[in-house]
Write a structure and sequence with these properties.
This protein has 874 residues and is of the alpha+beta class. It is built from 25 helices and 36 strands. Helix 16 packs parallel to helix 23. The longest helix is centred in the N-terminal third of the chain and has 34 residues.
């Protein structure tokens, strides 16, 4: 059926167009005036509204239409001549009858007089039933007046329209979901030539259901025993099948009705109007989502589906935050939560448990019935050349036989020694940097840290850094004061420095044990081992050696002959040859186990460092390993870990920087701001410590986790990444490799030459008042290979450009041993051989004369940079 307009339908129904418009608007339909177009389905609904009787299929929420008021008012008949009106009035009034002779005489006179022809032809009136005249008024010979047919008025018949009949498929309507009612299943219908097993139409018996005229109430069922049980089961099965079939039919009918465009107006007349008022699509209601929960990782597509908005709207919100993302791209959790807040919803992101998480939970909840004391694991940390390796070699050489010490210790960095019936495991990592990297990956392999301090050098910068790493790991610290046999040692000075670093010795009523040792004479070795055993007793270290093993990967490498080789530290359990090991993104069956002495063994137990062969790849240091009994499960876990690593790299967590510090504070992500300070001298470090600590507020507390003189190192980058810290450099720079590493890891490095600007910028960042800044753009670097002194000119530096370009218009920074000697220098002349040059590219030599500066020495580094103004955004 084609669509029509309101005035056509009104003419068809004989009602006013305004009545149809008003009725549609009362029902909240989009009909504006008499020229509005309406579909066939809506026209059928209007016909039913403007017909007599109750509605059969149409939905009506407003008040019913009063047909008497909305019917079209017909125009009155044209007035007849006065004589006829008088005759009708006379005929209608019951007056006294005149004599018959008078009436006959008047009729004869009227016939004799000539009658003028009427100029306008009056239509013959419709027959109307009128009151019969009195008997005395009737005349037998009355001409032209015929009383046989009733008078019918002009115009169409004013009859009430019959109820509208709808053409087309039958409409099945469900206005509201019916309450679920437990109904008895209908008895199945009998098939042809097959006896029934359930009563039909109130009759019982096997074959008497179809017979008529018989009393079936007195008959008994012939099914009993096993046959009756089978019949009941068959009836139940058929009833269930019929119910499923009926439900499937209803679903198919509902799907067909939903697909019909014309019926949508009648099924849900208000949905389209509500959607248009809300500004959304007319096909579905736009319900506002207030709270939603998504699993990690959150993609743009999943977020838009959860918020019930278009993916393009979510992408637009991300672009406002400076993030370009596609529909299938993963976004960070905090960014997703900010987008949800802009749409008026609260987002809760829950991490989806991976297979490895399930395995970890199984290991943690595994019953441990054979608990016993396990050896303590100690990590050696300290400054370079303070005797860490020498002290560890002395401990091993005094506890094991000659020829068996060492073995693979230098390769795996771990060893286990026996002392008076006690076992101690020493973890000799490549340094505190590797220890911090392991802690950043969630590994806590060590139970106690042995801080080696040389008595002649005292507390050095790397010693302070090692103390900060130990505090960040949250493990107890035992100080080994090595080289105690050297003359001229001031122990009080070392104790004072340790007390400043919150490691007050027990001799000074502190909590830190200090053991005086000597790697040369062996002094204090037994005391050190005794203190380690005492700490293990306090920590109550216990493990079960009968369950499958779990622990950490200390380090791993690819051997040209043996393939992937991994060094494992067993936290708990038993590892045997042939076990299936899952370690991060690698798995495999153990083919060989070697202990710290280099011996091939078949079984390893808790707190034991071993080297294994048999993995399919090289795992990362710090990965957790598990012994499983299913190789396929290990394979699935590895595939999932690889996928999660890829997703995490796409949605990398945002490091705290000076630019986003205020936004991080407002989002509640920063409660404590960690800062690493590097300066040229110790005095500057102390001043910065004091000034920056005074900037702490009630909302954010500034915590300086490391402060030392010297240039920015790779250890600072690793510590800043693990602790989410800012690095502030005062009159120092970062090496090229260190700067690239910081850029890759998202660590913010701020370099200053004026001390008050540090506190000023940090304060502005905390209160959200950062203004556009002048950013340095490094153009290149050049190394001074020779110097030439020319009279009346000064010192000319013969340089080799190692990176970028050396530009004449750029500013120059003179660096000597990673310390800035002079900044903001300008170039007086730049030459390539004998020719003046604007710039010299990397790999070429040049001569540089600095303006008003001649103190240039060999191996100095000239850093060329320019100032670029960048708008700072929060």
């Amino acid at each position: 059926m084609a669509s029509t307009r309101v005035y056509i339908l009104a003419k068809e129904l004989g009602v006013e167009s305004s009545a149809i418009v008003k009725k549609c608007q009362d029902e909240e339909l989009d009909v504006k005036n008499h020229m509005s177009t309406i579909s066939a389905g809506l026209a059928a609904t209007i016909r039913e509204w403007f017909s007599e009787g109750d509605n059969v299929t149409a939905v009506e929420e407003a008040e019913k239409v009063d047909l008497e008021k909305v019917k079209l008012k017909r125009k009155p008949r044209r007035k007849a001549p006065k004589k006829e009106e008088q005759q009708e009035q006379v005929a209608a009034q019951p007056e006294a009858p005149e004599p018959v002779e008078t009436q006959v005489q008047e009729q004869i006179t009227q016939q004799a007089e000539p009658q003028p022809e009427p100029q306008i032809e009056i239509p013959k009136p419709e027959p109307v039933k009128q009151a019969e005249p009195a008997p005395q008024q009737q005349v037998e010979d009355k001409p032209k007046v015929k009383k046989d047919k009733p008078v019918i008025p002009a115009g169409p018949m004013l009859e009430k329209p019959a109820p509208a009949k709808l053409a087309g498929p039958k409409v099945v309507r469900f206005e509201k979901p019916e309450p679920e009612v437990q109904r008895k299943p209908r008895p199945p219908r009998p098939r042809f030539n097959e006896p029934t097993t359930e009563p039909l139409m109130g009759r019982t018996g096997e074959a008497g259901a179809g017979e008529k005229g018989k009393d079936t109430k007195k008959r008994k069922s012939r099914t009993h025993g096993r046959r009756k049980d089978e019949a009941d089961a068959e009836a139940t099965r058929r009833a269930k099948y019929i119910a499923q079939r009926r439900e499937r039919d209803l679903e198919e009918r509902q799907a067909r009705l939903t697909a019909a465009t014309g019926e949508m107006h009648r099924l849900r007349p208000t949905r389209k109007i509500e959607a248009k008022r809300a500004g959304g699509s007319s096909s579905a209601p736009t319900a506002k989502v207030e709270k939603l929960t998504l699993q990690e990782p959150v993609t743009v597509k999943s977020l838009s589906a959860g918020l019930a908005v278009k993916a393009t709207d979510v992408i637009a919100k991300l672009m406002q935050q400076g993030i370009l993302a596609t529909a299938n791209q993963a976004i960070a959790n905090d960014v997703a939560q900010l987008v949800a807040i802009e749409f008026g919803a609260e987002l809760h992101v829950e991490s989806k448990p991976s297979i490895e998480d399930e395995i970890k939970a199984e290991f943690e909840n595994r019953p441990r019935e054979n608990l016993k004391k396990r050896p303590v694991v100690a990590t050696m940390l300290g400054h370079v050349d303070h005797g860490k390796t020498s002290l560890l070699d002395k401990i091993r050489s005094t506890q094991v036989q000659a020829g068996e010490a060492g073995g693979i210790t230098q390769h795996i960095g771990a060893s286990q020694v026996e002392w008076q019936g006690h076992t101690v495991t020493f973890l000799d990592t490549p340094g505190h940097e590797a220890f911090t990297a392991m802690r950043a990956r969630g590994a806590n392999m060590t139970d106690v840290v042995v801080l080696v301090v040389a008595a002649d050098d005292g507390v050095m910068p790397q010693t302070v850094e090692a103390i900060n790493h130990a505090k960040a790991a949250g493990v107890p610290v035992l100080v080994a004061l090595n080289k105690i046999d050297l003359p001229g040692i001031d122990i009080n000075r070392i104790y004072s420095r340790l007390s400043e670093l919150e490691l007050a010795p027990t001799e000074w009523s502190g909590q830190t044990e200090v053991v005086k040792t000597s790697a040369t004479t062996g002094q204090g070795i037994n005391d050190l081992l005794e203190h380690l055993d005492y700490i293990s007793e306090l920590l109550e270290l216990k493990a079960d050696d009968t369950i499958p093993a779990t622990g950490w990967v200390v380090e791993a490498k690819m051997d040209s002959q043996r393939g992937p080789v991994a060094t494992l530290l067993l936290k708990e359990g038993k590892l045997e040859k042939g076990d299936i090991v899952l370690a991060g993104s690698s798995y495999g069956r153990v083919k060989m186990i070697r202990d710290s002495m280099g011996k091939i063994i078949k079984t390893a137990v808790s707190s034991m460092p071993v080297e294994i062969i048999g993995l399919n790849g090289v795992p990362q240091a710090g990965d957790r390993f598990y012994v499983l009994d299913d190789l396929n499960r290990a394979k699935l876990a590895v595939e999932e870990n690889i996928a999660l690593e890829r997703e995490s790299s796409l949605a990398k967590r945002t490091q705290v920087t000076m630019d986003n510090l205020f936004s991080q504070i407002e989002a509640g992500n920063v409660k404590e701001l960690n800062i690493i300070i590097r300066a040229d001298v110790q005095g500057s470090v102390d001043v910065l410590n004091k000034y920056l600590s005074e900037l702490s507020t009630d909302e954010v507390k500034i915590k300086i986790i490391h402060a030392a003189p010297g240039g920015i190192t790779e250890g600072d980058i690793v510590l800043a990444e693990a602790s989410n810290a800012l690095i502030i450099g005062f009159n120092v720079v970062a090496e090229e490799a260190v700067a690239k590493d910081a850029d890759e890891k998202g660590v913010d490095i701020r370099l200053y030459s004026v001390i008050y600007r540090i506190t000023e910028d940090l304060h502005k960042a905390m209160v959200g008042l950062l203004e556009p800044e002048e950013k340095e753009s490094v153009l290149g670097r050049a190394v001074v290979r020779n110097t030439f002194k020319v009279s009346k000119i000064g010192t000319i530096a013969g340089c080799y450009v190692t990176d970028g370009v050396a530009a004449k218009n750029a500013k120059v920074r003179l660096i000597r041993d990673s310390i800035v000697i002079r900044d903001d220098l300008t170039i007086f002349s730049l030459k390539h051989f004998k020719d003046d040059a604007r710039e010299v590219k990397a790999g070429l030599e040049c001569g540089v004369k600095l303006a008003k500066f001649d103190d240039v020495k060999l191996d100095d580094v000239l850093e060329f940079y320019e100032i670029v103004k960048v708008a700072r955004t929060l």
